[in-house]
């Protein structure tokens, strides 16, 4: 852990990835039970300072570790976002008011990783209803970044980011509607992959998204390496990708006129270094104007309001039938007695201001559909777009929430929103080679592709990882 204010400090965790752990288990260097136990012990050591887990399955996990189910993930400890159904458990969405929803079956994504041999060791913390860039709620409290406890772990998959980034689980599963996998990956110094919306089955996960916004929601893994991402994705995806290849000959799309705000100089340095590294790997750069970002963002707000306002109010009705009264809840917030976390309640207060006519909603959909056609065609089967994950390093606690609530286009987060709106597959990875000299925090680079081009996206990301992430996948396991 760094000391605040130190210069040139290294805070990079020294963690073996899942691929390396599987090799060690196969070679007899460690048993699956030992790997599970080490992750559980690490989780215990980190829990008080990070608060990433809401439930730990120590005894069940250790028992499964003695004889793990065979499969491509056999014996690997995984954490699961609290909003994903696990048979016999309740989904609470970390809400005081919502009646807990009992799960008769595993969600489809959980069923797949179980069948592949992964061992669930914990459920992870989320912001209430999984609708914020910060992970905090009135039941379990705030989750901190494993790189700097004064900073957020991101949201909404922030508990996953903290667990994977601290070595408490080997990989995690998250959901992403506007950056909820990729921003936690940035905040926690790991890899986060949001495939296109239809790539992974969402059955059994919360929220049940209806309407047009369903085409913006995706499920994906948070991992310690690109090769782990490929391995886990091939388990959870409807269509697996082929083995890794070379990115040579692919087009590298550099967006111009893209509305975003870059606050930290190391992010610009990381973008330039990434472009150089990918060009050196044989990719050919071309600049393309992307002027639609503001219109797309306002479309996003209008569509989210259309599809979420009424369902949220309905879900906030308590088990004894008490509906949420906004004036009463506002008074509760003013007097320090809230029943809904501010990160959910304040946007809910503002949603009536974003309501639009049906005709306006149709225009929003038309705007998004036009952008999808344009950029899916532009990227095709050989194009990769280069962006930052966000325009600032991991935010100090409270900052990301304030940025979310400010009027206007949140330029810090437009790169992630853009990929959800246009329904691109997008992967974020830490650029440790360009870490901020004062804080030691890494900027995060994002690569995006058209739906169906995930193979080349992972190829490009793997090539970039060698240059900017300084991958070392083989430290001793006891260094976890």
Please summarize what this structure is.
The chain has 480 residues and is an alpha/beta fold. It has one domain (18-294, 361-479): Amidase signature (AS) domain (Amidase signature (AS) enzymes, Alpha-Beta Complex), CATH 3.90.1300.10. The chain is built from 15 helices and 13 strands.
Strand order of the largest sheet: 1-5-2-6-8-7-12-13-11-9-10
Unreliable stretches: 1-8, 472-480
> H/E series, N to C?
HHEHEEEHEHEHEEHEHEHHHHEHHEEH
What is the CATH homology-level superfamily? Amidase signature (AS) domain
Number of helices: 15
Mean pLDDT: 95
How many domains in all?
1
Distance between the termini: 14 Å
What is the correct CATH architecture? Answer: Alpha-Beta Complex
- CATH topology, by name, is Amidase signature (AS) enzymes
DSSP, total strands: 13
Biggest beta sheet attributes: 11 strands, mixed
- Rounded radius of gyration (Å): 21 Å
**What is the global morphology?**
globular
Strand content: 5-15%
